Amino acid sequence: MKKVYVIFPALALLLFIGYWWNYNKEYEAAKVAQAEADRQALVEKREKEARDRQRAIELALEKQAEQRKEREEREAKRQKEREERQAAKEARDKADRERQKLKRQLELVTEDVKKETEAVAKLDERKQFLIGEEAFLRQYVAKAESNQSALTQVIQKIAAAEAARAKAEAEAAAAKKNS
Fold first, then answer.
1. Cα–Cα–Cα angle for 103, 108, 112, nearest 5°?
2. Which residues, other chains included, contact 72 with Cβ-Cβ below 8 Å and sequence gap of 6+?
3. Helix (H), strand (E) counts: the chain
4. b/e string for 34-72 if b means 16 or more Cβ within 10 A?
5. CA atoms within 13 A on the CB side of 6
């Protein structure tokens, strides 16, 4: 019986060692397979992260390019609006300067028209005065001519009266001498 105490535990130990050896092989293989699977999963995860990162970088670059394009379009639009505002401001300033220039010209022309109107009015007054003076002189000349002819007639009458008186005196002197 004492052999039974040694044989059964030794047999159990041998069976346990066989089972353990078999389990250990499978466990090591499973452990290696698990480590390989974990390593493969880690590699795949890192590759996926790298692909995702690369895709994110590409998307970011695309978005950045799109934003840059939008920014450039906005800047071009702003620049165009600035240029349009500047052109409008310059056109407004030019129109204002032109308006002021025309206003000054209008004032000068208005003053010239006023001066010329006054000059024309003075000339009209002078013309009316001269027309009146001409009429007066025509009347004066007509009266002077009529006076001259009246004076000529008076002088002729006086000369005739003088001649008649001288003749009468000569006749009276001849009659006195004859008498």
1. 145
2. none
3. 1, 0
4. eeeeeeeeeeeeeeeeeeeeeeeeeeeeeeeeeeeeeee
5. 3
- Residue 18 CA from chain centroid, whole number: 103
- Tell me: the pLDDT tens digits for 5-15? 888 888 888 88
Which pLDDT does position 3 carry in this prediction? 79
- Please give the structure tokens belonging to residue 161: 């009266």
CA 100, CA 104: separation in Å to the nearest integer?
A: 6
Q: Copy the structure tokens of residue 9.
A: 């535990």
d(CA 161, CA 168): 10
DSSP state of 1: -
Amino acid at 16: F
Residue whose token pair is 């032109």 = 98
Length of the chain: 179
